Amino acid sequence: MSTLTARQLLPSFAPTGALGKKVDVLVVGVASSDDGVEIALAEGIIADDLLSEVLDGLVAVGATGKAEQINRIPAPAALDVESVVSVGLGSSEKIDAEQIRRSAGAAARALTGVANAATTLSLLDLEAATIGFALGAYSFTEFKSASPEPGSAGHPVEHIDVLTESPRTQATKAALSRAVAIAEAVATARELVNTPPSHLFPAEFARRAKELGSAAGLKVQIFDEKALERGGYGGIIGVGKGSSRPPRLVRLTYSCGKRGAKKVALVGKGITFDTGGISIKPAAGMENMTSDMAGAAAVVATIVAAAQLELPIDIVASVPMAENMPSSTAQRPGDVLTQYGGTTVEVINTDAEGRLVLADAIVRACEDDPDYLIDTATLTGAQMVALGNRTPGVMGTDDFRDRVAAISQDIGENGWPMPMPSELRGDLDSKVADLANVTNHRWGGMSAAALFLKEFVADGVEWAHLDVAGPAYNTSGPWGYTGKGGTGVPVRTMLAVLEDIADNG
Ligand code: BES
Ligand code: MN
Ligand code: ZN
Question: What is the CATH number of the domain that holds 46?
Fold first, then answer.
């Protein structure tokens, strides 16, 4: 089975200074202001007299500038395109990068069946418009036997000309390829998350991680079940042993080749399906547990993109992969396992499996002596109870936690800092082992899971833990640049944090 490259999953983009001949649809942004509706930054692209004709036409079919509202009109004969699509940007007073991404994404979703589009949204913010269009155009069709032909209804838009004042400069080309690389990383993570558990099991996930990593020039090491057993990875073995499809640990290494470069460890939860194990989950909604490897997918996509962007830092990703199944070989509630590094854990609830595989990977990651460690996981339902479906919880060491959350808000993934109240730690004490994997109550479940992980993070490492249980997988309707299914969260947060470390240490 082959792996589609992310480039094939997204439209192509080209910078341009004027409307080309082959453009079918021109996408403009419209904003609301005190003076009514206005078209944002299209002077010079659309001649002044045509601009008012286009605006009148859009207003006549209902355009108000409301955020993400889509309207479409046939283009005036003098404008060399078939139709003009407007997308709302909200109030002209506060059009930020995230609004541009969301509006571009909504426009891209409305452009199915269109071969060539052009947009002026890039005149507001080229990177935001490109990322929004790319992600809005993503769809997962691998398992549709009748997928629409290019250019026909239902097929995503194929090419987008991004209008800019300086199409030929190095800076523009660099900005565009950076935006496309970021979008490709998100699409790669989405593709892995959307691949059903029948087709993505630990060995296959490891194979795909290796294929992606090798293509990006990373060093890739795969531990199979025998190597994990020999190495003492009791958490990964314990969680994986109920499945006929054995677990893996994948390690991907990117070295920038610069002396004194900062070193960042990434760790992602890769449960290819989470039934809960013997502590089995209810049937309703269990199918969504195909997303329980979203942290791992994001980590793989992030390190690959960091290598492509040649970030001047060293990165090692440790990605544990297992399928959490009930069977006669599964671990039992009450079993005691020995994590990598020697800590013993009483497994009171086999559905709290993510922390067990992460603990092994975190201890291994810390042996490399990283300056920073970021782990991410669809770890707790409690994340959704606390913060809803779109807001990752960020925990960890104080300064780095706040830095990661601030960056996450800046790029539109909106991670929020959460505490790890120390009084919860005692509730993880076990009568028989060093630790229990759950508390005996529901309170602060997201923080309790983070406190469990904290036990395995080496002293002196700046650490951030991102719980993306809700944000990684969209089970409701599409919005902005986010379709149904895998969202790619928190790829853009992690990439932006890596860039920030590269710039500021
Ligand atoms: N994978 C789940 C968490 C999850 C829930 C992710 C909903 C996405 C959506 C995790 O392994 C789990 O089952 N956590 C338990 C922990 C509990 C047993 C302490 C939970 O949240 O119920
Ligand atoms: Mn679980
Ligand atoms: Zn899980």
Answer: 3.40.220.10
pTM attached to this predicted model: 0.98
Asked if residue 211 is part of any domain, the answer here is yes
- 291 and 427 in a common domain: yes
Same domain, 369 and 397: yes
Q: Which of 355, 364, 403, 492 is catalytic?
A: 355
pLDDT at position 1? 40
Query: In a mutational test of the pocket of ligand 1, which residue from 273, 380, 390 has the highest number of ligand atoms less than 8 Å from its CB?
Result: 380
Q: Binning pLDDT at 50, 70 and 90, where does residue 5 land?
A: low
Contact between residue 366 and residue 459 where contact means Cβ atoms under 8 Å apart: no
Q: What is the CATH number of the domain that holds 220?
A: 3.40.630.10
| Residue with CA at minimum distance from ligand 1 atom 16 | 352
Residue 471 CA to ligand 1 centre (angstroms):
14
Mean pLDDT of all residues in 132-151: 91
Instruction: For residue 382, give the ligand nearest its CA.
Output: 1
What percent of the chain stands above pLDDT 90? 93
Residue given tokens 């419209």 in the structure block: 30
> Are 17 and 58 in the same domain?
yes
Dump pLDDT digits (tens) for 177-202: 999 999 999 999 999 999 999 999 99
Q: Is 355 a catalytic residue?
A: yes
Residue type, 490: P
Q: Is the distance from the beta carbon of residue 172 to the nearest atom of ligand 1 less than 6 Å? A: no
Query: Which residue's entry shows tokens 């589609």?
Result: 4
Closest residue (by CA) to atom 22 of ligand 1? 381
Regarding whether 174 and 147 lie in a shared domain, the answer is yes
Residue 217 lies in a domain: yes
Q: Six-digit token pair at 442?
A: 């529901």
Tell me, in angstroms, the distance from the centre of ligand 3 to residue 472's CA. 13
CA–CA gap between residue 318 and residue 253 (Å, rounded): 9
Q: Per the domain annotation, does 142 fall within a domain?
A: yes
Our count of domains for the chain comes to: 2
Q: Which domain holds residue 331?
A: 200-504
Is residue 329 domain-shared with residue 469, that is, in the same domain? yes
Least distant ligand from the CA of 472: 1
**269: Cβ contacts below 8 Å, ≥ 6 apart:** 292, 293, 294, 295, 296, 320, 354, 357, 358, 375, 376, 377, 378, 379
pLDDT tier, 21 (very low <50, low <70, confident <90, very high otherwise) = confident
CA 459 to chain centre: 28
- Our answer to whether residue 403 is catalytic in this structure is no
Among 183, 209, 238, the domain boundary falls at: 183
Same domain, 392 and 329: yes
Distance 351 CA to ligand 2 centre (A): 4
- Report residues near ion ligand 3: CB below 5 Å: 271, 274, 292, 354
Does 206 lie in the same domain as 179?
no
- Which of 153, 183, 213 terminates a domain? The answer is 183
Place of tokens 């021109």: 26
Please tell me what DSSP assigns to residue 354: H
| Number of other residues whose CB lies within 10 A of the CB of residue 35 | 7
- What is the model's pLDDT at position 4? 53
Q: Is the CB of 467 under 6 A from ligand 1?
A: no
Could you tell me which of 173, 162, 166 has the C-alpha nearest to residue 26? Answer: 162
Ligand 2 centre to CA of 102 (Å) is 32
pLDDT of 296 > 70? The answer is yes
247 with 119, same domain: the answer is: no
